Structure formats: C-alpha cells, structure tokens
Amino acid sequence: MKLLIIRHADPDYSIDSLTPTGWREAELLADRMEKLDIKNFYVSPLGRARDTLSLTLKRLNRDAQVLDWLREFPAKVQKPDKAESGIAWDWLPQDWVQEDLFYRKDCWMEHPVFQNSDISTVWQRVTAGLDALLCDHGYARRGNGYQALCPNEDTIALFCHFGLECVLLSHLLNISPMPLWHGTCAAPTSVTTLTTEERREGIVSFRMNSFGDISHLYCAGQEPSFSARFCETYRNFDQRHD
Q: Tell me: the pLDDT tens digits for 88-143?
C-alpha cells in the first residue's frame, strides 16, 4: 500500500482558506493527483485542507471522507520563551535541542514542559485514528510495526497539515516528532510518500520514499511558498524570525 500525506496549499489563516498563490498551487497539485490511481481520499475538516483537495475532487468527480483527527495538531504547550501556551512546534532551537528526552520516541512527552499539556491525550487520539484507518485498509498495528491482514497495492491520500503530518510520520517510523517538527519543512502542497514493505509474509513496516515533494510546482515554474519556514539568515528581516 502507498500512503500519500499532503500538506494544504499556501494558507490564509485569517479565513481558514487559501491565498491566491495557494489556489494556484492547489491547481498544480490537482494536475499531479489526477494522474494517480488513488483509492480513497481523506481530509482534515479545516478549510485550508478541504479547499486544497477540492480542485482534485472536482477534476476526478470524486468525494473525500472528512476525518476530525486529521485537523492541525491542536495540543497546546507552554514554551520557555512564551508567556502563553501555543502550538507544540516552532520553538526556538536553543530551547529544546539540549534536552535529550525530546529525541527519545517513548519518553519525549515525559518532559516537564508537557506535564500541564493535553499533548498525550491528543497524541493518542491522532495515532489511534491513523491505526484504525490503516486497519480498514488491511494493516493492523502490532507493536512497532504492522500485520498484513489483507496485503494490497492500493494508494490512499491524506490531505492535512504540517504539524499533524510530523505526528503521523513519527508514529509510522517510530521516532520522536520533535526532530521532525523542527528539522523538516513540508512546503504547501508537498507530497510525502510512504510504502509498505512486507519482506516476510504478514510482517509489515512503512518506508518513507519521499518527503515534502513539490516537483509539481517546479515543473510549472512555480516557486514554493515560504509558509512553515523561518529566516535563512538573521538579517533577512522580511522573513519570519519567531
């Protein structure tokens, strides 16, 4: 089975939809999606994800299932440099990279900064939702891997958000989400592809074949949006610092 995790197009957060650039990106993504044999589409309930997928669905005359657990990862965290709690990522690097606990897949949520957060509850809801979906498609979670109940070569597509994508990847690859949240950037309309590998009968793992692929933008001469990135150098005052 192939699993496509797709980030929404360039967002206009003020209206939970897309910028004019985002609509162009969604159109180019639809050019790519309509060439694929996708068995099922699943989408976040948030407008920016649903609008991104809408052009693909219109082209294909298809429908998608809205899954609440695909919404942007909503857990709030009290970060050291902030007066109020906020999203679980976008920390200043110096506030987390020295903490070894953040890199440990089974222990990262035990750090004191998460103790008054709902992150454990939200994490369990998201990962349980993912595992239930995969089970519906023939793959049941067993420990750190999966059992092939009904092995197949179907392709399913999840249209969601960067923070949530990192949670899904951390669960599938059995790593902490912290290095993914802070060390990767999935540009708007990027496509991340994972494929099952059944090297022994019935025993399955997921391998990530590509992360954040935006070749559909480059092929059309469309520069990727800056969303989710921070300034390349401190003196880039027109780019996001915090």
A: 888 888 889 999 999 999 999 999 888 889 999 999 999 999 999 999 999 999 99
Alpha carbon 228 to its chain centroid, in Å, reads 12
Lowest-confidence segment of 29-38, 114-123, 163-172, 226-235 by average pLDDT: 226-235
- List, as own/partner pairs, every contact residues 20-23 make where C-beta atoms lie below 8 angstroms and the sequence separation is at least 24, other chains included: 21/225, 22/48, 22/51, 22/52, 22/188, 22/225, 23/51, 23/55
CA distance 163 to 123: 12
- How many angstroms separate the Cα of 50 from the Cα of each of 42, 82, 162, 219? 10, 31, 15, 24
Which stretches of the chain are DSSP H helices? 20-33, 47-60, 119-136, 162-173, 178-183, 215-219
Q: Residue 65, by phi and psi: left (phi above 0), alpha (psi -120 to 50) or beta?
A: beta
Helix (H, G, I), strand (E, B) or coil at 224: coil
Whole-number Å distance between alpha carbons of 55 and 76: 32
Q: Which two tokens stand for residue 10?
A: 């360039």
Query: For residue 1, which of 217, 184, 198 has the smallest C-alpha distance?
Result: 198
Q: Is residue 236 classed as helix, strand or coil in its secondary structure?
A: coil
Dmax (CA) for the chain in angstroms is 55
